[in-house]
Design goal:
- The termini are far apart.
- The chain has a five-stranded mixed beta sheet with strand order 1-5-4-3-2, with helices on both faces.
- Helix content is 35%, strand content 17%.
- The relative contact order is 0.25.
- The protein is globular and about 35 Å long.
- The chain has a single domain, classed as Udp-n-acetylmuramoylalanyl-d-glutamate--2,6- Diaminopimelate Ligase, Chain: A, domain 1, CATH 3.40.1390.20.
- It is of the alpha/beta class.
């Protein structure tokens, strides 16, 4: 799936990275916990989150996440958008909730990520 398709499916608004809309994404993850993102996400993924802070971009950069989708119509500040632009990450805002955005992408054929390692009890 391309980022352009993600934008269309999620009724999204591109905030940064319009020139990268034809880039491919392989999986998606929805989370507000960056520790879970670190544990589960693989490269060329879409991260759907309601968390707006610089850690989202830093985590995405470390994991080679292609696209960040901010749910519930959230729009990050200029600092976050500039960080994303500098690191080559496309940023989208969607009016959908995180849960609904994940479901829509899954229904349209974008799989979720699988754990990189076994999940232990209580984790």
């Amino acid at each position: 799936m391309t980022i352009r398709e993600v934008v269309k499916i999620l009724d999204g608004k591109v905030l940064v990275g319009e020139e990268r809309l034809d880039s491919q994404v392989n999986t998606a993850c929805g989370s507000d916990l960056m520790s879970d993102v670190l544990a589960f996400v693989k490269e060329k993924a879409v991260l759907i989150t309601g968390l707006i802070n610089p850690h989202v971009v830093r985590t995405s950069e470390m994991l080679d996440i292609t696209c960040i989708v901010f749910s519930r119509g959230k729009i990050p500040g200029e600092e976050i958008l500039e960080m994303a632009e500098e690191t080559g990450i496309t940023v989208i805002s969607t009016p959908l909730t995180t849960y609904t955005a994940c479901g829509e992408l899954y229904l349209h054929g974008l799989p979720g990520t699988k754990p990189k390692k076994p999940v232990t009890e209580g984790a």
